[in-house]
Design a protein that fits this description.
- With 327 residues, the protein is α/β, with parallel strands linked by helices.
- The protein folds into 2 domains: 166 residues, 3-Layer(aba) Sandwich (Rossmann fold); 132 residues, Rossmann fold (3-Layer(aba) Sandwich), CATH 3.40.50.2300.
- It has 12 helices and 13 strands.
- The strands form 2 sheets. Strands 6, 7, 8, 9, 10, 11 and 13 form a 7-stranded mixed β-sheet that branches. The chain has a 6-stranded parallel β-sheet with strand order 2-1-3-4-5-12, sandwiched between helices.
- It is elongated, with a radius of gyration of 20 Å.
- It starts with a helix and ends in a 6-residue tail after the last helix.
- Bound molecules: alpha-D-tagatopyranose.
- Alpha-D-tagatopyranose binds next to helix 9.
Length: 327
Amino acid sequence: MKRTVRALAAIAVGVGALLGSAQAQAPGKKYTIALIPGLTTDAFYITMREGAEAAAKVVGADLVFQGAPEFNPVQQTPVLDAVIARKPDAILIAPTDKTQLIQPLKKAADAGIPVITVDTFIGTGNYRTGTGEADFPLSYIASDNVLGGKMAAQALAKAIGDKGKVYVSNVKPGISTTDQREEGFKEEMKSHPGVQVLQTQFNDNDANKAASQLQSVYTRNSDLAGVFGANLFSAIGAANGVQQAGQSGKIKVVAFDAPTTIVGNIKSGLIDGAIARHPAEIGYYGVMSAFAHLTGQSIPTKIGTGFTEMDKSNIDNPGVMKFVYQQ
Ligand code: T6T
């Protein structure tokens, strides 16, 4: 069992004890909690699953992990339909679009299955306000992505000496997390007048596309100073593009997310800094919240999870390394 999960299991024992009275209300009932990721092969969601499994073990629930091979609503919706047909006790889902998943998820709520969104949200992400059509999920569990985007902008501004051209390599509009990261990034850059933010490049979660976009932007702007990769594939792709253009260490890269390759890339100087999210925490609190709700406890409408900033100065620190995602 890896470090993060071990740590979570230790916390889980404590929270499990707290929830002991709730568990006592439903003796013998084994809950099935479904986790639907944005896509199954992403290290971010693989790590989220580990946290969810750790919590499920503590509360004696069965975790079903079912997702699509690509991050898009067209592929995620049939997976969701199939999960609803299995009638789990609760659904945790990372909706791949703020709008397009509202109606499909409404079907789950109408079938009496509690819905909690993890990582991403639908609508505005403000649930149970009594207004709007996307108000029905019980809770949204994630880190603050506007803040994360601001942190990325600060790191990139610092890396480029607060001047020069930069752009955001992003997935596509409509995804709550990556939209908010871009928003936070641009907001923060307003306080850095020497930095010019070029047009965002959307890559459809395809690292190869992100790499060739980097090269095209560089061809048009030989003075390109930096790029912010707004998620794992955007960042890896942009960094590969920098390398292929022979600009490693010259065009600065700040990444969101921390796959295992981030360690070598930071050490080599290809990537200047990364903002790791804590997906295991998201999965863990997702299951714990579902279990709490199922056993009659109230749960908060929002649960904020953390970030860890990684760069050359701290990448060897075990307290930082434990937030590198699992494969
Ligand atoms: O950045 C994460 C996640 O937060 C986002 O919603 C989609 O992309 C990732 O899964 C990374 O690939």
